[in-house]
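Lab manual, section 2.4: Encoding a predicted structure.

Procedure: take the sequence of the chain (481 residues), apply the prediction step described in section 2.3, and record the output as structure tokens. A sample record is shown.
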Amino acid sequence: MVSWEQVRPHREDVYMTSTVIRRTGAANDPATHAGTVVIIGGGASGVLAACALIRCPDHRIILIEPGTTPGPGVAYGTARPWHLLNSRAAAMSADPGDPQHLLRWSHARGLPLDPADFLPRAHYGAYLADRFTHALGSGRLDHRRATATAVRPYGDGHLVLDDTGTATYADHVVLALGNPPPHRPFGISDAAYDSGAYIGDPWAPGALDAVPRDQPVLLIGAGLTAIDVALTLTLTERERGSERERGRRTPLDLISRRGLLPLAHPDRPPAPIDLDLPASRDLAPLLRAVRAAVTAGADWTAVVDAVRCRADDLWAGLDHAAQDRFLRHCQRLWEIHRHRMAPAIAARVDRLRRDGDLRVRAGRISSVEPRPGGGLTVTINDETPQWYATVVACTGPAPAPVTPGPLLGALLDEGLLRPGPHRLGLDTDPDGRAGPGLWVIGPLSRGHLWETTAIPEIRRQAEQLATAVNASRARSAPTTV
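Recorded output:
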């Protein structure tokens, strides 16, 4: 470990020598140990990567995460009791070799979970935290409570700098940073963006607490984030745990370009089907195969699930132009069929719409401006402006390189990372390698991979990454900087 002051921004990879490193343990000393893996990020991606890597006995793993409890991350750590997973419990085990692990873990804690059930997201966050605690017991995993601020080449590996003033040597660095921050929708003026009436990140702590229940509120976006926010804002006080009964007095408006909400899972999962999907560089043969299966009577959810199982290979087989056509014309249709609502959530949304508490429309926002006296004036489709007390952005994360943050931004500027195809994420090989000793897992892999935001796919990525890191360890001997 070295102090921050010893890491200079000018060619430190050339001028630093082994004498700079104070011998504080083999895990941080490249002269005596070439098996240190640093994971940056403590959400689901980071924890799944750590659990996979500790099964490689030659590695020492350090996970850098400022929070006290790695595992839940934003996805599960900010969830309220009424937020459910949008995948069935049978698919959500953290152990790839034990599909029943989550079920047994839940049963042991008094939750009679069925494989077809949709678990509360907060409960799943506790499960991931427990998996990390269990991994700590291996003796080869450390949790450093810090925020990584820079990654700099050093010898055959990298130095990871953090905000505690230390730098850790790593043979391999795994970027498990989760989703980028939400992006700013078109038409939001600077004044509106900075006003207290605009909520750019609904998952920030306390972000929704002050949203009024008796004044108009607009949600921008129609995906699962918008559904979660709508549920939170329409719950009665009794449903929140209070004795008072006081639901919304003014309907929520929800707008997206097409006005399409996610579809619902069936109550019971359909039987899997074997779908004959042609490997093609063009999109048309794939679409024809999907339409033919549904026309022939196959359950559409089974068809979508069959496509999902091969989505990454199919995506990689398309040429760049076909991928671009998919993004422009098919992406939203895929999303509403693929990222479905749990049946209980879908029933609640249907009731809200039927009762007039949630109004959904298609349209484009032309402008959002603050109004004197408070609130925001929103113009949709160049129609008559409407006033809203609060506007909540529920559009989801931006493509990764668009809002990279200081850590990713520096790596991109220095050429250590590259934007991936269509600038959806970072450029990697099939194992997640973004450069010598640099690895990416989770949503940042989008672009090279298509399905990279859900637990089953991230779990598979973690296993592939661990296998590739282990193989690279076997090919290289410890070196002295």
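Check your result against the sample. Residues 1-34, 242-246, 474-481 have pLDDT under 50 and may be disordered.
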